[in-house]
Amino acid sequence: MRVLVWFAAAALCAHAEHRLHAVGATTRGWVVGVALLPSGLFVKDAGGAWANAGYRHPLLTGLSWLPGHPETLFLAAGDGVIRVDAEGRWRVLTGETVTELQDISAGAGGMLAFAHTAGFRVSEDEGRTWREISAGLQRRYGKAVRLDRTRKGRIVVGTEDGFYVSTNLGETWRLAGAAGFQAMRVEQSPHEAALWLAVTQKGGIFRSTDGGLTFEATPRDPSAGRNLYDIAFDPADARRIAVCGWGVGVLISEDGGVTWQARNQGLPRPDVWSVAFDPDKPGRLYAGVHEEALYVSEDAGRTWRVEGLPGSIILKMAFVPAGGAR
Predict the structure, then answer these.
(1) CA dihedral 86, 89, 93, 95 (to 10 degrees)
(2) pLDDT tens track for 300-316
């Protein structure tokens, strides 16, 4: 069966345009030396059931796919970049010197980029070959990476010393913002290519309106001094954005990231690793609460209920186009 369950789910989801995928691990109650609890890649079917697709993996931190080709996933993993193809086969695309990946991004023309604990690398041939692009970065611990979906060669990365941008695919770099803060995540708006959002460890939320060239701190930021982990733009509402973190739970902006408010009613604790908006159901938002469960809100975070994956730490979620599975 392995990850074939992922593709079989397409038949059950014929009415939906996307299927929710999540990467993480079930950690509550687990101790070292005991077999892993359900961990790795999880896929939600049309009936609401979750399947642990493929083998149990202890550390997956991100997932992406090339534009127009969602039948193949690229996973950021503790042991490198893993490609999961339409036949359900898993293959590591990087060598043994590449470990502890933190993020992965895909772009047009077979472009892939990943962040790991020793820097950043890119591929221009769908992961067959990779090259290092960290030269010029003083601090090379890579936590976040995003390829600009509209400008070839532009890439934004997150390091221990803020966010950096390159317009020539890593040949040169310059500081874009959040200097002195550990970067955690950066995302580009699906509605407006010039709007980017970035979150940090204890430095708060940063916003760019010039395509990621410069990021400015958010005034009256309710997350200052906290660790933030994820960002989600609402596909149905260009002004709505969610971020999440430790001690702040879920924060929602209804004005494009200018102001923020906490929406945690119904969550068991304000410690959230990941968020994702459902592109097929306006207002539906998912949140991965630390070692509790995955929660869902039908009203953009105003109220919450349990949705599955008990005892888990879900590090990233993504709605993958269902039409790509076969």
Answers:
(1) 180
(2) 999 999 999 999 999 99
Furthest CA-CA distance within the chain: 50
Give the domain CATH number at 113: 2.130.10.10
In a domain, 210, yes or no: no
pLDDT-flagged residues of the chain (< 70): 1-16, 323-326
CA gap 291, 273 in Å, rounded: 10
Cα separation, 155 vs 166, in Å, equals 5
Same-domain pairing of 81 and 159: yes
| CB-CB neighbours of 282 under 10 Å | 14
**One domain for residues 98 and 109:** yes
Token couple for 234: 């609402």
pTM value? Answer: 0.93
Domains held by the chain: number: 2
Q: Do 12 and 57 touch, CB atoms closer than 8 A? A: no
How many other CB atoms are found less than 10 A from the CB of residue 160?
Answer: 16
**71 in Cβ contact with 21 (< 8 Å):** no
Task: Tell me the per-residue pLDDT of 178-197, one tens digit each, with 9 for 90 and over.
Answer: 999 999 999 999 999 999 99
